[in-house]
Write a structure and sequence with these properties.
Chains A, B, C: InterPro entries: Metal_Hydrolase (IPR032466), Uronate_isomerase (IPR003766). Chains A, B, C: Keywords: Isomerase. Chains A, B, C: It catalyses: aldehydo-D-galacturonate = keto-D-tagaturonate; D-glucuronate = D-fructuronate. The structure is a homotrimer of 468-residue chains. The first copy, chain A, is built from 20 helices and 9 strands. The first copy, chain A, is mainly α. The first copy, chain A, folds into 2 domains: 350 residues, TIM Barrel; 99 residues, uronate isomerase, domain 2, chain A (Orthogonal Bundle). In chain A, the strands form 3 sheets. Chain A has a 4-stranded parallel beta sheet, covered by helices on one side. In chain A, strands 1-2-3 form a 3-stranded parallel beta sheet. A two-stranded antiparallel sheet of chain A has the order 6-7. In chain A, helix 6 crosses helix 19. Chains A and B meet through helix 16, helix 17, helix 18 and helix 19 of A and helix 4, helix 6, helix 15, strand 7 and helix 18 of B.
């Protein structure tokens, strides 16, 4: 598309297409609320210029470099840093040209849509990106990045972001969030509490992490009570920096609600590093229930993101470390896995637990039936590999009939790629508008209701669910 | 929809839409054959007026109250009875207003379609239901219910029901069915044989149930041979009241074909209440094969409905008991699970085993390939949470190419909500008409064939499969 | 369809339909490259006339006779041979009439599309097939089969087949391929290396097969090193007859990368026939990794086709033997199963491993994410029961967004039914054209790109992936 098609992602039948466009026109300019993501708070704190086009679009985006790698382009040639921080290729232009030569690989992918949208809408580039235009695009983007209006805060404001959440570990001192808070800029950047390093006995340096947690909290976290207290203290600290949620990304959805004695015993083994894999899994599962109980007190929304088998390739993990595109989804079961936690807190109307999945087979079979009855449960949007036109459509088609719209929580961009944020929210608003228009034109929803639901899905539900 | 859209659920492209409407027009008024459901035979026996709108539409319909509960409305406020039979809220109008205030929660759900259809078609109400119209709707429906033409038998006739099946336990004396048979009304209400209380060693009071079974059958059911004989006797008794099928709702699709000695041993343990969960599961699985063997003799159609994890919430089960919307589907495997039974009886052309699923992932992968080769197997329609426009579409798209149309058995409403019966059959007829029209317009089926298949799906196949 | 609809399988909305037709018109006449299938090389070698219509269309096609069997037609009446080779019904016309009487069973199935296409395009028959036309069709096809232009080689040329692969065991002497090579006909028929009889310890006569393998290779295959060497020698021999791939059809996707000592120990047990099922499975899994290592040396493409539970019915297997329509797909997990092999060779850019599945739930969840990052992996097309309009559409919708188009390998017909080859490729080309047109009309792909991708999917990618 030299030009972005203004009707993109709308059904092709004219009467549905025109209604989709009408609905979309009422939500396209709503503020962006991004309650879950992985942008770097340092960007907003220091507000420094982004280094170069390759480091903006290629090197940090696992969607982009994994596809190039899948067709034989080495991560070294793309300047992706090794686990030890070294980078082989550092010439942004070389990386950019390699990206351009292989741009056809992205045909039909959401990355292609996000990139086209960013080139056009963020940098005002026209014409198609490819080998012939690589240098022109590189030069233009480089020039832009040097200008003040392309600094992180300026883009944040221009993107119409009302609130964005980053994700930090309890061991993070939140210095960048402090710096933002103490600055004269009033962009609303909040943190979220992601405790993997201190709730996963198999996490590198678990015992030291617990020491550090205690030090930060000013309590002895090596006892069970002190450990739970340290979580409460850090959660309270995160709330000072806007946190309204915690975030939990285990390999499975397992929860446990263990008797205190068993929990204590597992915690002590975890500190000694003597947990079996099964025991480590049980401990992680139990901590979800503990976190839910803390949420009942402090009101943080509990997000559960299970199902990714992280760092699937042993040699790549050794060479390049985490988050290099080798996290592969696996089958995830929720019904038995969530029962212990749901028996403990699932009927609490004042608790919000948001479930995500990478296993679409659970939408209609498990997640919608669960969220359609338990007051504490809500469904997160189509996530990660499913953050796409087809993925979002399947999400609505497979969850709405059983869970309705009001047990869902709007859209999350969940991204590290700052410039893709408007593009991703745009895709979500288009897909939902198309879905609603289809319901109207097939006699399943009245037109005025569709416009109201569109506002809910694009704006109201996310603020309500995340208490933003 | 203030008015029901006459084209609802049809594809939007005009040429497909018009053909869908043409096909639908030839099936919409066919008699309703409802071979599987849970309406109360007492309604037809006593033919008493339905008490009030809330007790007709809200309190008995788990689809309705589970959705309200999921958004924080308590079951007490909806008048849902506790396990001990007590009800907190008994004012129908209060319940009705609460329902109306939350009616937006049903947007995009099949419940919404069924309710709109019933309000309009059964009670002649126009305008949209909601807080503003709650009282008017309540008063109008109440007035109607007081009239003779809204008694169960009158509605049965008006709905064009040719045959309806209810579901009873072998321990049921079928008194209501006797009363119907002895009445001057000639509505065809038949029973179905659902033996859970006497084939599931984990069912409350299993041993006493077996005693009772023997007493009803006039045989000693505490011996293996007497037990099987008691089943045969009760099945014969059910057949006197029109039964043409048995119905089996286990948590899994497991079947077994055990040597007699093992079956006897498990039965004796079951009577003593000493079965392990694994042994109880094996016994249930073996009984499916025994039931299939009995079907070879007495001709009852065997229905297998696996996959629901019943009563998922322990606290809700304790407080409110069974069937309160907490039955959650789980992953269900059929291929290995059904093998013992299929090796025993699967190639019998005179046996009919109807398979249902709550796990759509098995449609194309397992169920269609199995039903597409085993003469004894047929596929039940999209069921329970999948008894919806999208669910039915997926069923056809994922089963037809491998199993064809003639290994399916038409539609089941499977409902407790009497007034929703015409609405549900209407949805099924519309979705099938749309599917057939799509096949024609995409060159996959000739037009005259589509009209013939539409008759088969709406009427002929269900009578044939269920021997009605 | 008395006439084949020229727009069949295209979306119905006119603007998408016309673009689909435009795209299709540029690929419909491209040569057929069939890199994976099960036609009999003897046909091309001897070029004898096909015996009769029933033996051409009914008796050898498990899609056809399994559907008839599922509705009570016995395999004996269809002339399907017993395991001992005997056939009950041998009168082709009787079989054909039985087929015609039940032709309505195929409504909505791909078999119906393939048959209609073959009747029309291969035999020039007009009018609809059925009981009334059975004899006329039979006579016409019989007359055709007697003519030289309906001999295998003539049809091969007429179908526009550029290359076709058959599948042989390492124990096959490839005599038919020799005969083809030595003939004056220049049709390109290549073999593929399918080692099940000599890599599966549970295969009938495994030990004798290993003896035979050694004899054919001229090495002692009863030692581990000799066994691997024998594979290398036979693979080289197959390459002389055009083989560019090996093919592996295990029940699961399990791979192993065992220490030499363990592999040797399993091999010795396998020879003694003392492997437990678990050990046999581990050995099969290890051999996939060994085959991948050999591929690194000799360049053969490794095809993995897991997930079929073969010969599901014990009584049918006993009476009729293998490949009688009783192979049922089962749930298949790839993520953990492939890890050992992928850790060993997954990042090799010069290796090609093509993954197929019968479990569509793995498309978006596992296969696309894996193929979208591992350079050695490519996705095979929608396969077997999913080689259909809906199946192919789901394949594109569920894999493209994460794996793109260029990690897929075009279409395989995988068939035993020679006359269905053009029909199957036509369906694939139509479905892909429709998918691409939809992407264009929904603003996801530029029009010129769609035409280019269409060429890739219909012709270029298959040649590239299979090195043809």
């Amino acid at each position: 598309m030299p030009e972005l098609d203004k009707y993109r992602l709308f059904p092709t039948e004219p009467s549905v297409r025109s209604l989709s466009a009408e609905i979309y026109s009422t939500v396209k300019d709503l503020p962006i609320v991004s309650p879950h993501g992985h942008t770097d708070p340092r960007w907003y704190a220091e507000n420094a210029a982004f280094p170069d086009p390759a480091q903006l679009f290629v090197t940090p985006d696992h969607y982009v470099f994994r596809m190039l790698f899948s067709q034989g382009v080495s991560l070294d040639a793309l300047g992706v840093p090794h686990a030890d921080g070294t980078r082989v290729e550092t010439d942004g232009r070389k990386i950019w040209r390699l990206f351009a030569e292989n741009f056809h690989l992205f045909r039909g992918t959401p990355s292609r849509m996000w990139l086209d949208h960013s080139f056009r809408e963020v940098f005002g580039l026209t014409g198609r990106f490819g080998p012939d235009t690589a240098d022109a695009f590189y030069d233009h983007i480089s020039d832009c990045l040097a200008k003040p209006e392309f600094r992180p805060r300026a883009l944040f404001d221009r993107f119409g972001i009302e609130t964005i959440a980053t994700t930090e570990s309890p061991l993070d001192d939140l210095r960048w969030h402090k710096m933002i808070r103490d600055s004269d800029w009033n962009g609303n950047v909040v943190t979220a509490y992601r405790p993997d390093p201190v709730v996963d006995p198999e996490f590198e340096g678990f015992a030291e992490n617990i020491e550090k947690l205690g030090a930060l909290a000013g309590t002895d976290a090596t006892t069970w009570d002190g450990y739970l207290e340290a979580h409460r203290i850090r959660r309270a600290y995160f709330k000072e920096f806007g946190a309204t949620s915690s975030d939990h990304g285990h390999a499975t959805a397992r929860t446990e609600n263990l008797p205190r004695s068993e929990a204590v015993a597992l915690f002590e083994k975890a500190l000694k590093g003597t947990c079996t894999p099964e025991e480590a899994d049980a401990f992680r599962g139990h901590m979800l229930t503990e976190m839910a109980r803390m949420s009942l007190d402090d009101g943080l929304v509990l997000q559960i993101h299970p199902g990714s088998r992280r760092n699937h390739s042993a040699p790549m993990m050794e060479l390049f470390g985490r988050d290099k595109g080798f996290d592969i989804p696996g089958r995830t079961d929720y019904v038995a896995a969530l029962k212990p936690m749901l028996d403990a807190v699932g009927t609490e109307p004042n608790l919000t637990i948001i479930l995500f999945t990478l296993d679409e087979t659970t939408y209609a079979r498990e997640l919608a039936p669960l969220a359609g009855v338990y007051p504490a449960l809500r469904l997160g949007p189509a996530w990660w590999f499913h953050d796409s036109a087809e993925g979002m459509r399947r999400f609505r088609e497979m969850t709405t009939e059983t869970a309705g719209f009001y047990n869902t929580v709007g859209f999350n961009d969940d991204t590290r790629a700052f410039c893709s944020i408007p593009a991703r929210h745009d895709v979500a608003r288009r897909v939902d508008s198309a879905y609603l228009a289809t319901l109207v034109r097939t006699g399943r929803l009245a037109e005025d209701e569709a416009f109201e639901v569109a506002q809910d899905l694009a704006y109201r539900l996310v603020k309500q669910a995340y208490k933003l």
